[in-house]
Amino acid sequence: MKTTSWSVDRLIKSTRRAVRDSGNYSAFRRLNPRYHKDGLDLRVTKQSATRALLFFERLLRALKQNGHGVIVEDKRTHIVINEQKIRVHVIERTKKVELPDQGYSWKQYDYTPTGVLSFVIEEYSSAMFKKCWMDGKTPLEDQIDDITNKLVSAAEILKREDEEREAQHRIWQEEWRLAEEERRKREEDNKRFAELQAQADKWRQYGVLTAFLAECERVLLDQGRGSLTPAAHTWLVWARGRADQLDPFKMGFLEAISTPLKGDLNDCERL
């Protein structure tokens, strides 16, 4: 995001250069701020550009006298009042005129200036405050005092709403953090319980295998008339070794859970 904080004089000069360049105008015959750099947001025809620029200059100087400023951010103009940014622009109403038939299958139009200017606040707010001033019985230039007063009021409203949104955002963040912590605890608890069940299954399997191997040894002893053959002895040693791998107690299950988890340790330290 590009932000330009220039003096009023420099912004006026930059905008004046943009006004003179025909390439900065859109198909609607209005100056398009996206086509030029660091100028004020004027959306007016070339015929009305000088007047619109003079209006903007008078407005900015009036605001400056009261300690307020102006910045251009991403080619958009923002009035800054008590650190609150208010996006604004000046726009001219144009008249859509149908051109004579030139043999095309579609109608063609041109846009002609009307000289009717409006000053617009481009901020969303749930509060009802004036956001547009336009030429009428009173020219736009003669409404500058009202505009400056309303801008100050709008800044207070927008600042309050921003603070409320930020406070609500912090509440949502905390709610999300607590929910995420609860989810993580449930997930960890389920994981620990699944491990407990797995160890219990191994213990049952170990008990079955131990009983089975005891019976195998009894049968082998009977077959060997009280003694085991070397092959039988070797097999029993191997089988019991493998069976021992299913015994949670021999495999260190209790030793592993004797060390408190990080969260449990912190809970103990707080007691």
Structure write-up:
- This protein has 271 residues and is an alpha+beta fold.
- The chain folds into two domains: 3-122, no CATH class; 194-270.
- 53% of the residues lie in helices and 17% in strands.
- It contains six helices and seven strands; from the N terminus they run E-H-E-H-E-E-E-E-E-H-H-H-H.
- Strands 1, 2, 3, 4, 5, 6 and 7 form a seven-stranded mixed beta sheet that branches.
- Strand 3 (69-73) and strand 4 form a beta hairpin.
- The protein is elongated, with a radius of gyration of 40 Å.
- It starts with a strand and ends with a helix.
Main sheet properties: 7 strands, mixed
Q: End-to-end distance, in Å?
A: 50 Å
**Gyration radius from CA atoms, angstroms:** 40 Å
Structural class: alpha+beta
Number of helices: 6
Helix content: 40-55%
Secondary structure blueprint with pairings:
Layout: E1 3-4, H1 8-20, E2 42-43, H2 46-65, E3 69-73, E4 76-81, E5 84-98, E6 109-121, E7 132-134, H3 144-223, H4 230-244, H5 253-258, H6 262-270
Parallel strand pairs: 2-5
Antiparallel strand pairs: 1-3, 3-4, 4-5, 5-6, 6-7
Helix pairs in contact: 1-2, 2-3, 3-4
List keywords for this structure.
alpha+beta; elongated; 7 strands; 7-stranded mixed sheet; 271 residues
Summarize the structure.
This protein has 271 residues and is of the alpha+beta class.
